[in-house]
Every structure is written in C-alpha cells, then in structure tokens.
Queue: 3 jobs
Job 1
Amino acid sequence: DKELTIAIDGWSSCGKSTLAKALAKELNYVFVDSGAMYRGAALHAMRNNLVSRNHVDINRIIASLSDVKISFKNNAKGKAELYLNGKNVEKEIRTIEVSNSVSSVAKIKEVRLFLVKQQRIMGINGGVVMDGRDIGSIVFPLAELKIFMTADPDIRAQRRYDELIAQGDKITLEEVKANLIERDEMDSTREESPLTQVDDAIVIDNSNLTPEQQLVKALALVKKIK
Ligand code: C5P
C-alpha cells in the first residue's frame, strides 16, 4: 500500500485536528498539528514581550527565531504534545491568550518559512496527516488527499468553549466566538499563504457530523485513492 500525504485545512475550531488524529491512528500514519507549531512560536514571542493583542514586534520576532526549537513528543497515552525548547507547553499553547496573539505571529513571512520547512521534513516520506491552514496550498501542494473542513461558526464556538471550560479555563462563549471570528478574518486575508480552499480539496461540513461520522467519510476518501 502506498503511503499517502493527507492535508486537512479549514477554519478555526472545525475539528481538523480531531479528524487528522483519528485518521492517522486508523492508517498508522504520523499526525502533525501544524497550528500547534504556530502556537509555540507565538508563545515564545509572548514570553519575550514581542507580541500582545495590539502590538507585534516583527523584526525582533524574526531575529529570535533562531532560539525557537519546536518539537512533538508523545505522552504516555500516545498523544502528541508540543515542546518549546525542550519544555512541554501543550497546555499553555491552548490558552485564549495564545489564541489571541497567534495569528499576528503566523502572518509573518519568515515565521512561516521557518515552520513550513520543518513541516515538509516531517512529511517527506508520506504516511502523514497534517492539519492547518496552508497544508494543501503551500506545505504539500502535491498531497494525494486534501480535505477542507468547515462548520457553522456558532457550533464551532460552542465546541471550543466546552473544551476550554472542561480544562478549567474561565472564559465566556462570546470571548471564544470573537476569537474565532478574528482569527478566521486574519488568517484568510493575510498576504502570506492565507487560508484558502484549493480547487482539488474535498469539503467536509461537519456542523452536524459526529467525529466518528467524519472519520468514516475521510476513510472512504482514502479508499478511493489507494
Ligand atoms: O490550528 P490552530 O487553530 O491551532 O492554529 C492556530 C493559528 O495558527 C491559526 O489561527 C493561524 O493563525 C495559524 N496557523 C497558520 N497556518 C497553519 C496552521 C495554523 O497560519 N498551517
């Protein structure tokens, strides 16, 4: 069997990573959450006071990239977690503070080149499911399967809100929805590799689909190609 490259792009909080993870597990492929890498880069910039809600020090962020070492390591349960300079930052990168700053860092061309290079290496041998915003367009334009995920914004906000509340965050549904809308706007209108639905992507609207139903759909798409 040929090892495929599978690209999953789409709007924020659409369940891209959930599907990518399930698909990778089923196919015994590597799963890469590219958004986590941007979140790691944003966290590093935040810790050095180079980005906040209304300020981004582009030049110093670029200069500090040589100090940013991003990697993934599986935890005891086999779940991939993000490491920044050798420290597990999986929890920290999911906070609303990082969510509110990440798009300002992700729009910087040099940040993207820095991370895209690493992402391409992770997928160099195929057998990878990567989710993000520019995977089918920029990172793996030759991916055999490209999925574009979308869902109703209210449903997305509610899902993300439930997730954050479950992990103990103090946050309102309105804050979560505002963040999704703002990120979608920034990610789809930026100059450098904006979020777009490429022509050869297959759309999955999962507003009314369970994770299991999405996996079934995705596996059917894989079967067609293999
Ligand atoms: O996927 P996730 O929502 O965690 O991504 C966080 C942010 O990282 C996105 O809102 C976007 O700004 C950026 N991102 C990106 N390109 C990717 C993945 C994520 O610009 N491939």
Job 2
Amino acid sequence: MMQNSFSKRLFSGSLKNQYKVTVLGASGGIGQPLSLLMKLNHKVSELRLYDLRLAKGVATDLSHIPTDSKVLGFSNQEEDGLAKALDNADVVLIPAGVPRKPGMTRDDLFSINAGIVRDLATAVAKNCPNASICVISNPVNSTVPIVAKVLQKHGVYNPKKLFGVTTLDVIRASRFISEVEGTNPTNEVVNVVGGHSGITIIPLISQTNHKMMPKDVKDKLINRIQFGGDEVVKAKDGAGSATLSMSYAGSVFADHVLSGLAGEKDVVINTFVESPLYKDEGIDFFSSAVTLGPEGVSKIHPIGEVSAEEEAMLAECKETLKKNIAKGYKFVEDSK
Ligand code: NAD
Ligand code: LMR
C-alpha cells in the first residue's frame, strides 16, 4: 500500500519506541501546539489530552493527522476523566494554569497555579506514579517543589522523573546570542543554569565561543535572556505569554525524555531537577545539564567553570531559588 511521503520521511519510528504521553492543560495556548508537536513525534503511540474545556475537540482535530499514534481527549465533565487521561502514562506534560499579563511576575501566578498543579500532581500520584513528569506551569521554581511534595506525601516520589521545563531559556539564549554575534542560531549552545524566572536564569556566556564580547553588549544580552518572557508578555499586551516558542521548547524537552526512556545514548539537556549541586546550601532544586536514560535522570552535570561575574549572579540566584522552593513546600504542607 502507498504511504504518504510526508509521514514516511518524518515519522517512521520503530515499534519498541512507543510511549503513552498525557498533556494536562491541552487546550491552552501552549497545550494545543504542544499536543500537535507530540502528535508528530514517532516515539508516541498514544496521546491523551486533558483540559477543563475543549480537549475532546482538540483530540478529534489532531486525530486526523496520519501519524502512527492514537489521540484521546478527556474532560473533567466525564467521570474519571483525569484518571483515564493519566492511567499508566509514561510521560506527563503539564502546561495547565494561568499565564502572566503585563506588570506581573511569575510568582504572582502562584496563588492560582499552585492549587492547580497540586491537584494534578495528586492525580498523577494515584494513576501513573512511574511517569516522567514535565512541569511547564509557572512559577516553575515553586511548582516543581509542589509536585515533589505531593508525590512524597503519596509515597511515590522519584526525583529522577520530575523535571521543570527550562528549555525555553536555552533556546532563547541560542537565538539572542546569534543575533548579537551575527551567527547561525542552530550552531549556538549556551549553558543556562539556575531556575526559571528573571535573575534566577543564568546564561553562562563565559562558556561559549563569545566570551570576549564587550561588557555592555554582554550585560544587555544576559538581561534579554533573563527577561525574554517579559518581552513576549509585553508584546501580547494582556493576551498571555509565550505559547508557540514554548510549545517548541516543550516538545524538544519531551523528545529528550522519550529518547532517554528508549535507551538512546548521550541524551543531555538542561532542566530543573532535584539536584545535589547546591543541596548543602539548602537548595534542593537547580537547573543544569542532565543526562537522561531509561530510568529518568542518570547524571546531573556540574555547571562547569564560571567567571567572577557569573559567580555573583549565582549567589543572587540561589537566594531567590531558596525562597521559591520553600514557598512551594509550605503550600503543600499547609494544604489539607
Ligand atoms: P492558557 O491560559 O492559554 O492555557 C492554560 C490551559 O490550562 C487552559 O486551557 C485551561 O483551561 C487549562 N487548565 C486550567 N486549570 C486546569 C486544570 N485544573 N486541569 C486541566 N487544565 C487546566 O495558558 P498558557 O499560555 O498555555 O500557559 C500555561 C502555563 O504555562 C502558565 O502558567 C504559563 O506561565 C506557563 N509557561 C511556562 C513556560 C516555561 O518556560 N516553563 C513558558 C510559557 C508559559
Ligand atoms: C516564559 O519564559 O516565556 C514563560 O515563563 C512565561 C512568562 O510568564 O514569561
């Protein structure tokens, strides 16, 4: 039988790389394009979409794409909709929650998103405790600790399989440094470490080929990477934050998680995980390069050599991160 050349070229996957992926918040600004990109990923055999609205419609729409995966939509209106969406999932992507408007910080989203993420994490603990969980909902510096605490409460926390998605900071850094240096962004790699908000985002420019950049140019570049999210929030003028670049970033991250599960070699990406790097300073979670394997995190890489300037940025980052993480923990501890 004839196969269309589009699917043959892009989506020919081997049967052993078949995973069940669930998107929570699948009808949102990120959720829809992220679900589309996961429908195009040949490692996915079953894509489950869950939202408070429209998930069945989005699923039906995506189900017409001729890639070798099934798409199912679930809503909170049906009995056990969330449980069915999560049942035995291998990977769970969580972009559920409200986005920023101009003038807000990511921490301003905590009051709404903390409860959403806590409740979704509870459902994950009950229905797919072995899943790799990728948290996109902001504020990531606090929502990841929230998920960890919920899973701990249920006795199913596996730190190797809980990730805060910070890929957008890394892709922005590639793009923005290439604009400054007049290079091809696909050849630029910047090690961005720390967390995912303002000054906790630390692009280690000293580790790139552009360490001789003039200080004023470098300072401006670092600021743009740290506040890239605000650039989009301002441009969208009240209609939300980054969705398309984020869905691209989320799909790149999810693909790395799936590649790790599938046993591919040298799967390395930066992500916010429970980390030994600064644990002795009371910082349980930190984003750095991580190698992913069949059991999730297989190695957390040290951040490498940094300049005196970056060392000072790290000190500030750690102070903020500590508070953000503690806020997440406290929220779950105070929850009934
Ligand atoms: P959006 O409002 O467009 O979509 C959010 C979706 O979540 C909506 O469809 C909504 O119905 C759904 N939702 C809300 N509560 C839910 C629940 N309890 N269960 C299931 N679904 C629920 O927002 P968006 O632009 O897609 O952004 C989503 C989140 O992602 C925000 O918190 C935003 O700050 C964050 N974000 C993170 C990054 C990152 O780099 N990690 C980047 C961009 C945005
Ligand atoms: C981003 O970095 O674009 C996201 O965290 C969304 C935001 O609020 O900026």
Job 3
Amino acid sequence: INAHLAQTEKLASIGQLAAGFAHEINNPLGVISCYADLIDKQVKGNAQLKEDVGVITKHASLCTHVVESLLNFARVNKPEFLMHDLHGILDDILSILRHRMEKVGVTAQTRYLATGVELPLDPEKIRQLFMNLVINAIQAMDKGGELTVSTRLVDASHLEVTVADTGVGISPSDRTRIFEPFFTTKAKGVGTGLGLSVSYGIVRQHGGTIDVESTPGEGTCFMVTLPLRAKETKNKPPTDRG
Ligand code: ADP
C-alpha cells in the first residue's frame, strides 16, 4: 500500500510539473502569436504567405488552449478551513445528481454512522472531491445499479467516507493509473482524466488519505479518510481559531 501511495503522489505531482512547464511555454507562445499577427497585417497582396501565416496563428492558438487547460488544472488555490459537517455536503451532492441517477436507473442510499461530527474542511473543495467520486460512480453504472455513501468514525481522530458502486469496476492495471493526471478510459468529451488527480490533491490538502478497492464486473469502493482535528503542522489544516 505504501508503494502504491508513493506512486500515486508522484503521479499527482506530474500535474504541478506540467503547470510549471506551461508557464514557461506561455511567454514565447505569446510572442509567436503576436509576430504572426504582425506579418499577417503586412502580407495583404500575397495570398500564399497569408495562408501560411494563418497556419502558424492557428497552431499557436491550439497550444495556448492546451497551456490554459493545464494551468486551470493545476491552479492550487489555498484551502480555507472551517469546522463543518459532512453529511449536509453529501446530501446536497446526491440531491443535485438525483435526476441524473434516475435517468440511468441508479438508486442511492446513505449510511451515516458518524452523525453530529464537525471537522476542519474547505466545504467547496470537499464538495468538489465527493462530486467527482459520485459522478464517477454513476458513470460506472450506465446500466443501473446501487450507489452507497457511508460515513463512520475509524478511531478517535479519523472519519471515513466511502463511495461504493455496483458498476463496471477497475482492472488491476488501470487501478495503478487512475490518480494520474489525464488518465481516462472514457470517451473524449466525457472524461478529462483530471477528476481523481484533483480529488487526490484535495484529500492531501486536508491531511487525509484516499484509497480504492475494486472488482471488475462487480463494483468499486473509494475510501476517503479525513482527520477530525487539525494538525499543527505546516501545510496541514490550521487549528480551529476560537
Ligand atoms: P475521468 O472521470 O474524467 O475519466 P477521473 O480521474 O475521475 O477522470 O477517473 C480516471 C479513471 O478512473 C476513469 O476514466 C475510470 O477508468 C476510472 N474510474 C474512476 N472511478 C471509477 C469508478 N467508480 N468505477 C470504475 N472506474 C472508475
């Protein structure tokens, strides 16, 4: 498991590397576009040259698009922690997605055992995290199935949320790659391959862990563990402020 986590971490950091790279590419790319525009304005009489410059402009803007999506993906804005309950967030997600689940014959149930618990979290990020997991679960059950969202206290200082589905499952070889940025098995336009890598980052920002168990053909269960109290370490959630 440790080796797996180390690899996961390495893969998630590829996204940040890519973002640094994107920054470096952005400036020269801007210069290329700018000069192509300048040439374009001077070649009015020469149709062939105008067309050639058009190709440069078009491909430079394709690059710009790729760079922008990389930057978007890696935008790691700082989380803002407050003491907050989880069940409200989870219920919201399920109700937002209810219609979508009905359409594909997915039924949802909740098993909330950790009731009345507040923990230090960034509600928006946690919403995004579980939204990603639940949408993945629904997409894994396009012929219907059952979604179960559960919470329980693991010990005195950790709460576990599980998102379980009865969908297609994940093959052992895919399982080593699912947290990798841009890894997707979904059709273009359906999947970006960023959901789990972003989710992994959010869990880490909260000082938690994320893991997965899956049986192909039977289903998948994502387990997220979050600390109940903030640790007083750098990059960890701050202690509650009064
Ligand atoms: P995306 O959903 O855009 O493909 P993710 O990072 O969220 O990107 O997921 C990566 C891949 O992990 C998916 O393409 C899919 O193969 C697999 N996956 C994630 N969640 C599940 C699930 N609940 N059941 C089956 N496969 C899953």
